[in-house]
DNA sequence: TATTTAATGCGACTTTATTGCATTAATATG
DNA sequence: CATATTAATGCAATAAAGTCGCATTAAATA
């Protein structure tokens, strides 16, 4: 199934690129100039996520947030379960912290997968 | 507002204690012998969570999971935003990893809050 | 035992997200 | 360039998770 370039996708991707924070459906829709259907928005976002173009994070509110992928290796599409995301509290930027984070568990514990969101200040904002 | 001891709460708490994994609403309801209303189950669970008796985790599926609190300091009720949870892939147990985890970020980055789920094997199962 | 009010059950409702299906339009093909 | 193919879209319906209002029930207390 080959992907096609469409107006909707371009605009949504542009918004995600311009935005420096992860957006949920509502936030994204609010930024749209064109009217794009809810379902389409979700489909575009999930397609991006599947393609490794953006990452999808589930917030504490249970909603899906999407952010343009900064540090992600686009070849490896196994996004969801092997890294943390970092969100800067000042500039709002969301990044992947793929293997840059050192997780040390209590002794006897071994890590298989981890994911979650770390909040703080990035190097530009701290 | 003083808490009252009720049948429903006892049964739900018992199930959470017996279960060694975090349960969502459906899973919990399936284990009930008595019929307890959806709304009640949610209210009981959130009450437990507010009281620091159980912890609430948002899964990757966006659903709320609840697990009896093993390592949590019941005095400090600020559960939600300052620790990771660890889930053992074998025995399914969910624990708080309050300050036992060493988070080291890329240089220049500072941590304010973190939460998420780490999967692996606990000391008993690894 | 009577009183107070926390907890429950029921139903309606909200929000988030997905799916089916007919239509539109992006790409490929001749 | 015209046409065929089918990915992408819009619309409506639906699903699923969770919350809320309100009348009722039943713990705790006096």
Automatic annotation (TrEMBL), chains A, B:
Q: Which domain of life is it from?
A: Bacteria
What does the note under cofactor report? Binds 1 zinc ion per subunit.
Q: Name one GO biological process term.
A: negative regulation of DNA-templated transcription
Q: Where does Zn(2+) bind?
A: 88, 91, 122, 125
Keywords, sorted A to Z: Metal-binding, Zinc
* UniProt cross-references to SUPFAM superfamilies, sorted A to Z: Winged helix' DNA-binding domain
What does the record give as cofactor? Zn(2+)
Named from the GO MF annotations, one term is: DNA-binding transcription factor activity
Leader sequence segment: none
PANTHER family (UniProt xref):
FERRIC UPTAKE REGULATION PROTEIN, ZINC UPTAKE REGULATION PROTEIN
Q: What is the protein's given name?
A: Transcriptional repressor
What species is this protein from?
Answer: Flavivirga rizhaonensis
Species lineage: Bacteria, Pseudomonadati, Bacteroidota, Flavobacteriia, Flavobacteriales
